[in-house]
Amino acid sequence: MATRDTLFADIDTMDPDRFAAHLADDAVMRFGNAEPVRGRAAIRDAWAGFCETVDGVEHEVVEQWQPAGATIVESNVTYTRKDGGRVTVPVVTIYREVGGLIADYRVFIDLAPLFA
Asked: Domain SnoaL-like: where (predicted)?
């Protein structure tokens, strides 16, 4: 089983199965202002689709907090565009675990600079 210590490294591989290994079967993900995606398989497929739009993803964790029941991570994420350009945006991720897997995953981000 994947551990949260490798969560962002696994995401940065852009291998959807590595990200999905962190998720509960009935996990819910909300990415930016998009509609929530429900279920590990659907989240995996959504991440796979997003990965097709970029050539790279790199998380730099700035700070992490773990109040009761949640993990909050502030990071800078650098995306490599298909044209080779790189864009870094600030991101806050909040996730909650049940039974050692992520059940609720929320990403607060403005992707407008990436696609500008």
From this structure: 8-104
* Topology at the third CATH level for domain 4-115: Nuclear Transport Factor 2; Chain: A, (3.10.450)
Domain boundaries, the chain: 4-115
Instruction: State yes or no: pLDDT of 58 exceeds 60.
Output: yes
Amino acid sitting at position 6: T
CB count, 10 Å around CB of 39? 15
Q: What contacts 15, CB < 8 A, 6 or more positions away?
A: none
